[in-house]
Amino acid sequence: MINWWRTGFNNGESEAIAQAIIHEHVSQGPVVAELERQLAAYLGVPYVVATTSGSMALLMSTWVLGIGPGDEVVVPNRTWIATAHAPFLLGAKIVLVDVEPDRPIIDVNLIEKAITKNTKAIIPVHLCGRSADMHTINQIAVKHGIAVIEDAAQALGSRNADGFLGTQSDMGCFSFSVAKIIATGQGGFIATKNDKLYKKLVAMRTHRVGDIVNAEWDQPGFNFRFTDILAAVGIEQLKLLPGRIEKVNKIYQLYEEGLTGLPFIKLIPVKIAIGEIPIYIEVLCEYREKFIEFLAGRGIQCRPFYPDLNYARYFNNSGHFPNSEPFGKSGVYLPSGPEQPIENVREVIMMINEFGREICE
Ligand SMILES: Cc1ncc(COP(=O)(O)O)c(C=O)c1O
């Protein structure tokens, strides 16, 4: 079986977990602090706040801005639904905006039309390492006095001309879940350059109680703490990041070459020349169900894209999203991931070509 995603953990990670336990570093402590320090150094930001998932990072970021009932948050119609669930759980209205015609990335030309006097934040999503147009988004945000939170869950290590994605706004949210370039099973973090937000995030992560004995119960927080055991895995995985970036770029290039000229399949582009990292191999396929079934019959697992967010009825968005639709209806993830053997990729390309011959007959 060739799985749609392959990642991996090595002796380094198991030894690091054992060490954390031997030293009784099990809850949030010095290992989390060290992971935060290393991530901040890698991204070139002063502050990183680790937490239990990318979803939690998004929830903390929206909550720390005071977003709640009566507020509106602008979200692209194509993303993993976690992006919208964070502000939604806080009581905000989710305002969906369509994506660019050729990339599942928020169309900045449509953002201003979606802004009202109640808008508090825009959450652009760097889906599959692709950069949203941060220049324009930040300009719009300054003009309207609203915040920007980058959802960089799928973009650790990805760059545009201005540097790392997730570092070009008020806060950037990242994920360490399994289908990410490096993983801790569950985990995530927020990167920020803003010391006021950083202090509030740190306080919020422990119920906003810095001093348990002399607690002043002025504002609520929650338990958003990460664990040293998983941070130990994160530190080991971070060492693998440069090699993994090379590997996923190579996989992308192989698919790009191998799928050229096939009329029924189109690779959704990632600009690796400018530093975007294609963590997934995303294609549009005219005959999606038939295609997935054909490959499954040959031991190759693919995944259809998740539906567009306007299908989540509880967001009550009645808009029209013509650019999102082809992605939601024809999108497929081909087998990829940092530990996907190259011979698997070659096999998948061969089988896709065979599918092409079959549908031509
Ligand atoms: C775009 C996007 N946003 C947010 C998340 C949420 O991250 P997590 O699964 O760590 O909660 C993910 C994870 O898959 C994601 O892909």
Descriptive overview:
The chain is α/β, with parallel strands linked by helices and 361 residues long. It folds into 2 domains: 11-235, Aspartate Aminotransferase, domain 2; 241-360, Aspartate Aminotransferase, domain 1 (Alpha-Beta Complex). Helix content is 38%, strand content 14%. The protein is built from 11 helices and 13 strands. A 7-stranded mixed sheet has the order 1-9-8-5-4-2-3, sandwiched between helices. Bound molecules: pyridoxal-5'-phosphate (PLP).
For this entry, give a set of tags.
Aspartate Aminotransferase, domain 1, globular, seven-stranded mixed beta sheet, alpha/beta, 14% strand, Aspartate Aminotransferase, domain 2, 361 residues, 11 helices
Any idea what the radius of gyration is? 21 Å
Tally of alpha and pi helices: 11
Structural class by helix and strand composition: alpha/beta
Measured distance between first and last alpha carbons: 27 Å
How many individual domains? 2
Which H/E pattern describes the elements? HHEHEHEHEHEEEEEHHEEHEHEH
Described by the principal axes of the CA atoms, the overall outline is: globular
CATH class (first level) name of the largest domain: Alpha Beta
Q: Which small compounds were modeled alongside the protein?
A: pyridoxal-5'-phosphate
According to DSSP, the number of beta strands is 13
Here the CATH topology of the largest domain equals: Aspartate Aminotransferase, domain 2
| Contiguous uncertain segments of 5+ residues | none
Helix content range: 25-40%
What strand line-up does the widest sheet have?
1-9-8-5-4-2-3
Largest sheet: 7 strands, mixed
- Strand coverage percent: 5-15%
Mean pLDDT across every amino acid position: 97
| Annotated CATH architecture of the largest domain | 3-Layer(aba) Sandwich
CATH superfamily of the largest domain, by name, is Type I PLP-dependent aspartate aminotransferase-like (Major domain)
